[in-house]
């Protein structure tokens, strides 16, 4: 009886883990459309209103994102939300932070997609290079699509 019970628990645990892994296979990357163009446009407005006064967007292009490679977008959003804006940390709506980071991704030449970045998707979105304006430069981009 007891053995059977334990086996049942193990089987359930196994199925749960496999299910989680199957979900993980859909994991997004900033390289394959992790935000929408619309939200980046909204993020730009928020950025210009609340951040630009202290940080030109150039600060967050290239080397900045390199420093975040290997973690998820959620980690970056959380880190910004914890400390910024300087005069009222976290003093924006959650979605505004996601939109703003979408704008930062866009400024780094990362492509928009169909799915909005939010509290649900951000933890699956892996930050990985290459970053930087060079990506928008069609000569240096293999497989570049005509705009
Ligand atoms: C009043 C000025 C001010 C405002 C407004 C402000 N910041 Fe900052 N921010 C700073 C200072 C000062 C630091 C400390 C690190 C530094 O010296 O760059 C910092 C650090 C950061 C960092 C850590 C990495 C880095 O650049 O060193 C990020 C990311 C950041 N800010 C993003 C933002 C975002 C996004 C906003 C808008 C929501 C914002 N900040 C608004 C002044 C500001």
Could you walk me through the main structural features you see in this protein, from its secondary elements to its overall organization?
The structure is a single chain. The protein is mostly helical and 147 residues long. The chain has one domain: Cytochrome Bc1 Complex, Chain D, domain 2 (Orthogonal Bundle). The chain is 45% helix and 0% strand. The chain is built from five helices and no strands. The protein is globular, with a radius of gyration of 19 Å. 23% of the residues are buried. The structure holds heme C. The site of heme C has 12 residues, from loops.
Tags for this entry?
mainly alpha; disordered C terminus; Cytochrome Bc1 Complex, Chain D, domain 2; 5 helices; binds heme C; 147 residues
Question: Quick recap of the structure?
Answer:
The chain is mainly alpha-helical and 147 residues long.
Topology overview:
Layout: H1 2-24, H2 37-50, H3 63-66, H4 73-83, H5 94-107
The protein binds heme C (HEC).
Order of helices and strands: HHHHH
Helical percent range? 40-55%
Shape: globular
Runs with pLDDT <50, length 5+?
Answer: 20-25, 134-147
Query: How many β strands by DSSP?
Result: 0
What is the second-level CATH architecture? Orthogonal Bundle
